[in-house]
Specification:
Order of helices and strands: EHHEHEHEEHEHEEE
Structural class: alpha/beta
Strand order of the largest sheet: 5-4-3-2-6-1-7-9-8
Distance between the termini: 35 Å
Shape: globular
Helix content: 10-25%
Length: 244
């Protein structure tokens, strides 16, 4: 089943999650699954399987500046190996410093920086051959952005690996077609700890339309109690209300 519109790329949300759906080990930026899972017995043993699957994702990867800053790209030094992957970073605050921008310019086949911050340090690198800034004056319009990816840049497929808040925005904008999650054998907990989908909670029955049903397409049992689960997203939500 292909539910995606032909005027935008086909998208897959690919993430590492705990059994309780957390994508971080805590509610501060000093805690992170990439840094912390390798330290925990019973979790670290199968972790490499996630990174092996990550190498097989799409050649366009969409991330957020906050997630990238959290894993330390602003402090990456030395020689950086260029890859065949093109990176798309959504960053308004900014979270990426100039060194982080330079890191992605060196690493990416092509680097797209999407921002609504006119003072982003990335503007200092405007004009670099493999670098493009997509600027929005009044906040990023994700419907327009994904249309641009297809219509202007001829991007057919994108893997999304962002934080829970941005994941929620994209999901509720009908911009995620597939879910591919690697489930680590861990329970993390914490109501303030980021989950796969965060964002604003629902408040009333009429908002149930924002919930996305999923269709299971594949489930693989990996080694060391890990799972790889894949779904199609049913973006056309139908709600049946009881008759009065």
């Amino acid at each position: 089943m292909k539910s995606y519109s032909k005027n935008r790329p086909e998208t897959t949300l690919f993430m590492l999650v705990s059994v309780d759906g957390k994508i971080s080990t805590g509610d501060t930026d000093v805690l992170d699954v990439d840094k912390d899972f390798p330290r925990i017995s019973g979790i670290r043993e199968g972790l490499q399987q996630y990174y092996d699957l990550e190498q097989r994702t799409d050649l366009f990867s969409l991330n957020s500046g906050r997630v990238q800053a959290k894993i330390g790209v602003n402090k990456r030094m030395g020689e950086i190996e260029k890859t065949s992957c093109s990176f798309i970073i959504i960053d308004n605050k900014p979270h990426l410093e100039l060194n982080g921008v330079d890191y992605f310019i060196k690493k990416s086949k092509k680097f797209f920086l999407v921002t609504a911050n006119k003072n982003h340090p990335a503007f200092e690198r405007k004009g670099t051959d493999n670098f493009e800034i997509i600027f929005y004056e009044n906040g990023v319009d994700f419907i327009d952005l994904f249309s641009k990816f297809k219509q202007v840049y001829n991007i057919d497929r994108i893997t999304i690996q962002t934080g829970g808040t941005l994941n929620a925005i994209l999901l509720r904008s009908n911009l995620i077609d597939h879910i591919s999650i690697v489930v680590a054998p861990a329970l993390i907990g914490g109501k303030e700890t980021s989950a796969l989908i965060d964002g604003e909670s629902l408040h009333a029955p009429e908002e149930l339309i924002k919930i996305k049903a999923l269709k299971l397409t594949k489930c693989d049992v990996l080694e060391n109690s890990y799972l790889h689960v894949q779904y199609d997203v049913i973006n056309e939500t139908e709600i049946k209300f009881k008759s009065p």
